[in-house]
């Protein structure tokens, strides 16, 4: 009797799957037709601005080749190397390595050592490695730390040690409000980026309703709050996601129910890619906008065709114009320069300039950085009293044919 | 019974050492312990070749982290080693301690005037974690074995998720400038800072010694005997009139208090608390420290904590390979030493030992058999 | 009974009473069926992985903590198969139905073999030496953690910290709509295939000679040995079977979530699957299936109701609530009980 029941069940299952297969065939055609008529209906076409060239007066690490400095002079990179979101750390680290290499090749009289410390991207590991860097008197300046959370945990320690710290990636606005005299941000912060994103969404894309998706990071929450504020009552839903999440059916459902004109995803690429794919799979056809945390080749690779047409904001300049940099970077690291590679390179250049100028202790390097006023690869570097840049360009990018290409100059913040 | 203990050709060295130790009087044992303690206190000054973790990471902070894990392992040992309750969510108590400290001292807190002294924070944090131990323990401790494991894991995760989801707890953004113990040097600079590991290390070692003494006394009391009875056979204990549930909650609460204390120390040293370090992996590393060192053996779990925390720092392997090595080492160690580095032992108390030596004429034979070495009812029992 | 309507009613009641957490019952009512269907498709993956936990637990009484890595090795296996078949990351290739089925089946078989081999190896390296030494049960947990760490780190070093670029053999498209829930062909394939596999596994354990041996060892290892059951073979079989199902689950997982091929991609899923196994009654095959499906569905309701960030909280609350009422899970521990 049991055997008979089992046979019946298996037969039933087979029948069901057969039926499904035939349905699937019909369904495929139906939806494909839908896509054909719907696509391109209300998409706004944005004309791209030209990419900036390398500024003629950009400071390069090589300098004039006559620099002299003491043997053993070092700078440090502190940030994730093998830990969380290691790809971002690697982007920066190779930029730093490239700058130091170019400097040392051009300046036989001044060989600067690069010391690398892995903070694993965690506020918990960072203090011990930062202490180690601080206790090493040969280190005169630091590039790092890339993430806002870990920067928050150790900023005070740098301040107490008087060791200059240029972050190439941490964009939380509050970091500069702690009175740390050693904190310098090598790029615009989220309060520069958020208004740019908001104005792009409402003015350029002419969206009337927006869903702002936030992750649970310092960065994602801060950026989402500022953007929501700037968008005002256009925000129709605010779903939250978690770092490490891969399955977004509920969030996607909430969005498709609200059916907004645009979705702003405030988070990083590891969650951004599956989110974009599942959002598109669910048939959502409005605009998708995401910040610099998503602007990475990994995003395009992972989201595949779903990434197509995603608008990406970034307080970084397109590196399309930086041909020599890109070539040298690729030769050294065997990979394309990506998000924050030029920023890491620029930050290192400034520290190297300080050393080349004959500064041989932390106090004078710090003073040099504080008073620095010069053009870099990515932007003009001049810091205000809090360590924020006075001029912070924000650019919009778009994913086109599997490449991130620059789209629009959103102007400079204050 | 006929074998002469003096003909020790076939007695392993460890056994001889233990026998020698067990036949000392309480006073002689103390005399041996004191130099060891002094040595432990002096460790931060031995920052050179065989011990130093530099230039990879700061030596004193590495010592502090090891000591902190040691304290946690001691607390978990009460739950896991003494009472035999597999708690995979111990990190929850650690998190609660850290969060209480953060809420009471950080300017980011929702409290009006979050400026309590550290000496107020410690007892409050411990009491709150103890209460949470009761809250979590009461519904869960009726479950047995692996069910308890998964439910505690769930509770541990829930503490973290609540910290993430409830707005005043600030999720990933966290609390900055968490309070530290008061005290300044002669020149007015604070003793306890984020970057100087020495005072933290000494403070933690002191906490460990206090906890060792307290828990040691508890173990020798009625409570401790009840725990052992529960661990060895819960049904039998219940039948013999041990109120098992109550003693299990007790174990949970005492373990929680120690976890809370280490949470406060952690929050103070880092100066920053957010929800990132209280995940399942951390919780499991705690369990690993206890089991690796020898569940039920206080000295063993301290050693286990040292292995889990200090050894990866000391090895200074390329960061990429550290955890691979760690995982393999964990496997190999456990395969060759399943009872842990120092296994749990049942032994008589000081007076009992003296009586044993007098009556039998040789030191007490300490076995390593206990319920912890039983494979349960599965294959191989 | 019209469930969405009922929920709407509940919504008004709750909102009238004024809850502190933001209950979005309106949305739940609207998306009730969509949630159920998504939940079943995702839950069937939990169920397949949960069986691995349950089988090993039933026979050895140990939590195979490294089972999540058994699963992720399968995912890497399936992914490698895709690459070898010439699929590229990015655009979804349009192939005919025939080659598609053949390719998916091939990838599934490779994944199953990879996972089974991993499980097998794990048993040999991490568990068998301990069994020989009669080690305490907790120690198995620690070696499992060690193995889990080692496998994860091996993939981290080899493949890097980013997920593999997603490869999709077919794009999810709605086959039909049911009460405004889109049901995609992937969901149907996954659900049906999972159910068939679960039936096969159930039949294997409950009807075949080898399965009987397995149940015998689970019930009483010593007596089973005396009756001529080869324990070591049964244990190997247990791990292999769990591995095979985990491999299949891995294929279904990356069909639904192509970005899931990541060194630590199995960890959370493993914990969820273990939760599912306990929920249904660990050691009980059908319990694992029930637990998996239930967890998938309930999680989805929960996150629609309270917001995505409460998803895991809901899962654990349900687990704790069920264990309070039924301390050995919904169906109880019954792998060992020789019910025919």
Describe the structure.
The complex is a heterotrimer of chains A (414), B (381) and C (340). Chain A is an alpha/beta fold. Chain A contains 12 helices and 14 strands. Chain A is globular. Chain A starts with a helix and ends with a strand. About 6% of the residues of chain A have low confidence. Chain B is built from 14 helices and 2 strands, in the order ααααααβααααβαααα. Chain B has a single domain, classed as Orthogonal Bundle (ABC transporter involved in vitamin B12 uptake, BtuC). The longest helix of chain B is centred in the last third of the chain and has 27 residues. By secondary structure, chain B is mainly α. The N terminus and C terminus of chain B are likely disordered. With 340 residues, chain C is an all-alpha fold. Chain C is built from 13 helices and 2 strands; from the N terminus they run ααααααββααααααα. In chain C, α5 crosses α6, α7 packs across α8 and α8 packs across α10. At the A-C interface, α1, α7, α8 and α9 of A face α3, β1, α7 and α12 of C.
List keywords for this structure.
A: 414 residues; alpha/beta; 7-stranded mixed sheet; 5-stranded parallel sheet; 12 helices; 14 strands; B: 381 residues; mainly alpha; ABC transporter involved in vitamin B12 uptake, BtuC; 14 helices; 62% helix; 1% strand; disordered N terminus; disordered C terminus
